[in-house]
């Protein structure tokens, strides 16, 4: 299997950003709807301090990535682009390895640029978690 390059990785990330943004918006609408039902008008998004929004969003992204990589080896964006995260034995990473990979992706996103100089086309999060992102189109 061939390791995925920078353009494929970034295109998949764009799709994933859209999915996470939609999930964040949906969560805000649900919380606002509950608040509206309990307290009455007006229908507004709950006021959150910036740090709380940032922490919540970061947690959502880490959970999103960890779940996708643990369950199927790919996020929805990677599915669309025909990519899959695998370990040396060709299987999706386990929960701990997927969590480590997700944390490195979120904390050090510029590490993806390492694929430009890596002879095996690995990003920093691949090196740390001992994974590789490969081209593996879905069977449909």
Automatic annotation (TrEMBL):
It is found in: Cell membrane. InterPro entries: Pra-immunoreactive, RDD. Coiled coil: none annotated. Keywords: Cell membrane, Membrane, Transmembrane, Transmembrane helix. GO terms for cellular component: plasma membrane. Its main location: membrane. It comes from the Bacteria. This is RDD family protein. Residues 4-129 form the RDD domain. It is a multi-pass membrane protein. The keyword Secreted does not apply. The chain crosses the membrane at residues 51-71, 98-117.
